[in-house]
Amino acid sequence: MIIGMARWEPGAHGRMMAAAIALFTEYGYENVTVAQIAAEVGVTERTFFRHFTEKREVLFDGAGGLQNRVVELIAAAPPGGDPWTVTVDAMREMCDEFFDGRREQSRQRQRIIESANELQERELLKLAALTSAITAAHVERGCPANTSELVARAGVAVFTVGFGRWIDGPVRQFSDAIADVAAELHGAIAHSTRP
Amino acid sequence: MIIGMARWEPGAHGRMMAAAIALFTEYGYENVTVAQIAAEVGVTERTFFRHFTEKREVLFDGAGGLQNRVVELIAAAPPGGDPWTVTVDAMREMCDEFFDGRREQSRQRQRIIESANELQERELLKLAALTSAITAAHVERGCPANTSELVARAGVAVFTVGFGRWIDGPVRQFSDAIADVAAELHGAIAHSTRP
């Protein structure tokens, strides 16, 4: 749903990603060939496969960069920062860097992901990898493994819900949507009758 | 990791599930055939396939029942209960009903899931389905869709982390592990510097 949008380069790589999303949106993911995507940006199929291992990868190319950036930001957070605040702030910062000006493409990409089971599965795997990376980043800071995993899972939940609210809600920054969702989770849990 | 353990019937169905876990644990998931599982409990391969569509399904058979029970419990919660408390309490109740006395098998099953990518993917899909079902159950109670999804995702995070703590931590009830993890999430979020 989220994870492949990030940082389109201006070169052939980024143009293939943009062309793929436009073509998938117009004709359906299943109906578009790699040859069509390549033709759309004036490169050969072979060039496409130098950049992406298979058709669906053109939708997930940003995932690694996004994940690495969140991990970097968690590692760079001031020592002693509580894990939840560090996680939410890192995600917000990454969103400002990676998703600014990408709302429409993010929404289109999301609709494509929802259209095919294989893409949804791939997205789940990417989110699981992001969760593991955030967990490891907190362990690296000296946070207990159990707490690290819990905060990572809750953080990815906030990220995912925030993404949906950003692409389908009123126009604003993705990072503001995340702040709202984090505040809502705080409200739901802190004011529950459960201790 | 969690989701297929539940409610083994005493008949051939349950015996096939137990035999499969024992055989997978001893010889490895990839190396065990359906014929071996069937032979182990004295039925034919054909009988196996009357109960399970494919080999891996023997590990995920409980998922539907578990999900339905959580949904039932959320639906039956007192009106006006806050969504977070309702979610955690429903999961705890379900765990008492489904996982009591199943700690060792749950741990073995978890190790099998971790041994094969296709099983991990299947598990992610089952957890995604559980998340959707919990979301829908809260919407049905009149909770806004956004909050419902957020609480469902955070709830499944607590369930998943609680499962890991239950199978690998000191012996106790699964539902007590969930209560501890829910309290820890409360602590991490309510006492963070982030509002």
- Biggest β-sheet description of chain A: none
Residue ranges of chain A: pLDDT <50 for 5 or more in a row?
Answer: 5-9
Which geometry of chain A do the CA atoms define?
Answer: elongated
Strand content of chain A: under 5%
Specify the oligomeric state: homodimer
What is CATH's topology name of the largest domain in chain A? Tetracycline Repressor, domain 2
Number of domains of chain A: 2
Number of helical elements of chain A: 9
Largest interface: A-B, 39 and 39 residues
Helix content of chain A: over 70%
How far apart, in Å, are the first and last alpha carbons of chain A? 33 Å
CATH architecture of the largest domain in chain A: Orthogonal Bundle
What integer value in Å does the Rg of chain A equal?
Answer: 18 Å
Indicate the CATH class of the largest domain in chain A: Mainly Alpha
Mean pLDDT over all positions of chain A: 91
Helix and strand run of chain A: HHHHHHHHH
The CATH superfamily of the largest domain in chain A is known as: Tetracycline Repressor, domain 2
TL;DR of this structure?
2 copies of one chain form a homodimer. Helix content of chain A is 71%, strand content 0%. Chain A has helices at 12-27, 34-41, 45-51, 63-76, 83-99, 103-114, 117-140, 145-168, 174-190.
Provide a descriptive summary of the structure in words.
Two copies of one chain form a homodimer. Chain A is mainly α and 195 residues long. Chain A folds into two domains: 2-58, Arc Repressor Mutant, subunit A (Orthogonal Bundle), CATH 1.10.10; 62-192, Orthogonal Bundle (Tetracycline Repressor, domain 2), CATH 1.10.357. Chain A is built from nine helices and no strands. The two termini of chain A are 33 Å apart.
